[in-house]
Amino acid sequence: MADRECPLEAVPLPAEVRESLAELELELSEGDITQKGYEKKRAKLLARYIPLIQGVDPSLQAENRIPGPSQTTTTVPKQQKPRPTNSRDERFRSDVHTEAVQAALAKYKERKMPMPSKRRSVLVHSSVETYTPPDLHSAPPDVTTGLVEHSHCERPQLASVRGVPRGYSGSILETAGGVPVNSRVSSKIQQLLNTLKRPKRPPLKEFFVDDFEELLEVQQPDPNQPKPEGSQMVVLKGEPLALGTPWPPSLLAALQQWGTTQPKAPCLTALDTTGKAVYTLTYGKLWSRSLKLAYTLLNKLTSKNEPLLKPGDRVALVFPNSDPVMFMVAFYGCLLAELVPVPIEVPLTRKDAGSQQVGFLLGSCGVTLALTTDACQKGLPKAQTGEVATFKGWPPLAWLVVDGKHLTKPPKDWHPLAQDMGAETAYIEYKTSKEGSTVGVTVSHASLLAQCRALTQACGYSEAETLTNVLDFKRDAGLWHGVLTSVMNRMHVISIPYALMKVNPLSWIQKVCSYKARAALVKSRDMHWSLLAQRGQRDVSLSSLRMLIVADGANPWSISSCDAFLNVFQSRGLRPEVICPCASSPEALTVAIRRPPDLGGPPPRKAVLSMNGLSYGVIRVDTEEKLSVLTVQDVGQVMPGANVCVVKVEGTPYLCKTDEVGEICVNSSATGAGYYGLLGITKNIFETIPVTAGGVPVSDGPFTRTGLLGFVGPDNLVFVVGKLDGLMVVGVRRHNADDIVATALAVEPMKFVYRGRIAVFSVTVLHDDRIVLVAEQRPDASEEDSFQWMSRVLQAIDSIHQVGVYCLALVPANTLPKAPLGGIHISETKQRFLEGMLHPCNVLMCPHTCVTNLPKPRQKQPEVGPASMIVGNLVAGKRIAQASGRELAHLEDSDQARKFLFLPDVLQWRAHTTPDHPLFLLLNAKGTVTSTATCIQLHKKAERVAAALMEKARVSAGDHVALVYPPGVDLIAAFYGCLYCGCVPVTVRPPHPQNLATTLPTVKMIVEVSKSACVLTTQAIMRLLKSKEAAAAVDVRTWPTILDTDDIPKKKVASIFRPPSPDVLAYLDFSVSTTGILAGVKMSHAATSALCRSIKLQCELYPSRQIAICLDPYCGLGFALWCLCSVYSGHQSVLVPPLELESNVSLWLSAVSQYKARVTFCSYSVMEMCTKGLGAQTGVLRMKGVNLSCVRTCMVVAEERPRIALTQSFSKLFKDLGLPARAVSTTFGCRVNVAICLQGTAGPDPTTVYVDMRALRHDRVRLVERGSPHSLPLTESGKILPGVKVIIAHTETKGPLGDSHLGEIWVSSPHNATGYYTVYGEESLHADHFSARLSFGDTQTIWARTGYLGFLRRTELTDASGERHDALYVVGSLDETLELRGMRYHPIDIETSVIRAHRSIAECAVFTWTNLLVVVVELDGLEQDALDLVALVTNVVLEEHHLVVGVVVIVDPGVIPINSRGEKQRMHLRDGFLADQLDPIYVAYNM
Predict the structure, then answer these.
(1) How far apart (Å, rounded) are the C-alpha atoms in residues 747 and 1340?
(2) Is the pTM for the entire model greater than 0.85?
(3) Are 235 and 645 in contact (CB under 8 A)?
(4) 202: CB partners within 8 A, 6+ apart
(5) Other Cβ atoms closer than 10 A to 772
(6) Are 73 and 28 contacting, i.e. CB atoms less than 8 angstroms apart?
């Protein structure tokens, strides 16, 4: 093929050898001959010429082998054996391109990228024992910055807290980071890290101001970039329009002339799908039928007795591609009736790609009538009434069928008015813009006539010539040549429908041959298709052709189609000078066309341009670099009567220099007049005044911008290098979508891409264009194939265009939205991509390599010294951030407080004074009371337990006892039983019978770590602990004594133990944090009673009150409310175990209503269950009499930042059931102090502030207005409890901070825990958690560090004591935060953004692994839609958080583990991911 830079060019080969070679290549491409056979025959053919071509670059001569899975890719395109109809590549590619791509790929030596993992319906998990973890002991690179830093080792957390797979031996699963590892996932991540470790392109000059505003990198121009050096271009003038020719005064005059003087002359022949001529329209028929239609339109259509149409009205023409005859009649009928035809595509379904936009165009043009054919009208979708359905976004239309029988013959004396109307609009052609909006280009009668004259002159059309037309006759060149200019010259057009081309790609050549056509109008695709099908057709001859007009001659792949076509058909009579590429645009109509020499055209030229130069808009003819070049052919000369210049694409239309690429502009009487109804953009496009560098206009008349990018070459030939619509500006360089498509196609397209269907477009992410490439893959492509192809496409594009592809997506064959003639509807594809509706089957994202404009990672500033800080605070007039609850001393007589120092004493006192006062009611799922406990009953049960412990388990005072009970009164009795005999109780959540493997190890661990001497439990759980299933999860032989308390004898204890001092240990509180750390804190008797006292005062709890509790009773505030407070304050607690809500969601709210509870407590998971489960049932609940107007405070017990969205939707939802608007609030507690804040019954309502999320990342608080960008709402976590003092300290210097400054919350209070009993795995780290002192200021007070970031802010409100109220805002746990790019991120903020990205994302959790951000999303939708999420997740995290996501994991709903408080267990999830236990639907590794 002629343009291949190959040895064959060295010697001119005889025509017959060339033809045999072409035949051979086709045999190979069709798969009719093996590679070996091909090489043998080729060598034989060339044997005589070979000696002449030895001095050639061997890499071009031999095949370039690319190391890959047993593939030898030769420089010859290899295609699979075509299926009868569908294996045709939509676009032809040049072999030069293929060769360039091969060479580019050879440079890469197939880098191994981690292949995404996709779920097979059943994944066989190999056992943990067989894994060999990768060597991760070298510090992983910090891929987030491209610098290799030493990563700080994370805390080795013990995985057994989070359920370790069996076979866990201390060493097997540990990596350097202390993370259990399984090789499948981690080796992929290691591969990813290694890929990312490669040096990137030189880093940009980054600047960054360490302030809230993160400045995005502005790409600095490369000092070595090519710059245009030529002189300023001059306006290029086309030849004048010939004057002496007797042109008809108008197109309609020509029609009338031919229709009356030559009625038998053929005008148009229509073919069916077999290629048979079904109808030939003569000029006489065209004239008479158009008249008939014009008469009907003007006189026979009425609405409300008014004529429906008046001259100048717009009418839609809806005709299928197979019916040119009816279309032509309708078009001329409208012109005769002075109506404006608007040809559009036939809407096939109610949701065609772009159909809504077409409807918008029709609406804005005021179209009320659509013309169509009988057959077409029958095929349109119908409404119930039988009328044509209204399409989405379309105006209401009347449909008129224009077949003969529906029209009225005009009377003899009727003549249409149609004069030559000059500037009036003749027709409107629709055009779809890059964004997908559809506009109408108006063409006036004068322009129409001028266009016909210019085309007649440029193409040398003569009367009665024959033209075969393969193009769409409704618009563009197909309309201008095949419907308009043809009538002017009484030509005969053979119209070849697209459907026939699909069945028989040779049809157009056969018609040229049989009709001896002088001219043919085709696209590159048609030439390419016919090449693939021409074998065995010895008898076709193209010798009659004098012009083969290639309408898309401006496309980068048209040159190779032209060359290849000539190569094969030259021997069949095709003369080289016949091929005439042309360039056109909807706005300027025909811009340039190549003329044969007999019409005065110069010889054709080719330009081999440097891609790099083009990306900077500069023309450099490339000599050395064979790889990244674009070969373009000229599209001929300017049209007669037109002036052309090239102007800068952006800004003022300055003329370009001669070696600069710009937008081609045309000044001529034959261009469009404007966009219908859009005056603003019409002015920009159709009335541009190009100016010289000095600002002088180059001409009086306005120019029209064509949307084509190009330059004027030698001999005044026009060259087009791309379209404005396909222009993508990445950084400072410009790339053309079509060029990138051509490169992608050159990577073995026939093997992989279905029919060459590839779409390339750009999306804006983080203020820059990002390139997205979407291709349809063959139905039989394997996972390996697709990944292989994707990675090679990335490498080829990177090498040839020096630009990264942001996202590469593969979709199943035939699923991309189609344009009318079968191409891809780009804007609709882009829309689907952005909406997450593309449904790809494979995705590869490369944000790490593409996104080069992130802000520079933050450098920590040298710390300001403490003294200057405090002085700074005072100078700034800021008060130190400190707040406290009410003073305990003033609140009640200290006598009672002394009496209530020990809870066992309190219980005995109540049993003595109010024996029958009910303390506890336990409800089951049906809402019935299953057990109750009065003061005396509880006391007696506790005595029995104490007796059993002393006699049966032989424990002594001070021993620890584990209580493993389901939520209920037994648990409370066992707790007091332990206190009665001086033991220290430890409450433990019982294992889940269905999930022993993961829940039992935690039970065992708490029992061991707490050094429990005995386990108290129920019979059922005791059997479970000793069962065979349990033995599979833990070593059951090492349990301490297990006692069941179901049937213990009624016994009293001789004496109830009384602690020697209030500082003696009362109980241990064990809990697993969300970061997976198991921590047990010690609570003394003094702290226990102080805690109860504070809660009693804050919530005003008295024996006459009833409160409802829907919490787990095992740790923290849930335990205190469940087991301690009722005994202390004497109020009645209605206990609702949260597990029961799984079978009856309304249980808790019904209980609140039934017992008229003024105060109720719940967890976030309970609130979420109610919001999700009862959303639609508030009416039903009201009917059942549920009324929540009794509630004063409903508190969510939490150890996290308040979830505003959830509490607000809960309040809104249950407002209908009487829940007061201000009732819902949150509490805040943590390990060192389980209750720091509680809203309580008095005091001002919780306040909400909005802070800048970007400032938070820098550890600062910046208050902003509601609704401002990056704003994050924070609500205060209830009121600080009586006796509690809070201060905000700097996390590193430990100095006090000012009001509204972000720091760690420190707390001092009589109910602080006295210390950790143990922190599993990390004692040293936590030594100062309970005994911290400020580094300056008040250095005497002992504080406990909560490990939470937050700030205090003085509000305008007053609290109960009349002071101004200080609000505490919790931002998040320090342990949970992610340190990325030098900034501190709270996972919840990233997760909130991700959940908003797509409606199918049910839940999300993020964590980091070796500096990679991993995002796990739960898909609430179909598995085949899973991959839509990858790009959207990556986009939203980049846009809103300036972070690059490393891995996106898509899992089923419910995979993200959530604890009983409703908190996400992110570390648990992380371990599950690394140990390959999640069974993900898809894992995408972003490059």
Answers:
(1) 73
(2) no
(3) yes
(4) none
(5) 25
(6) no
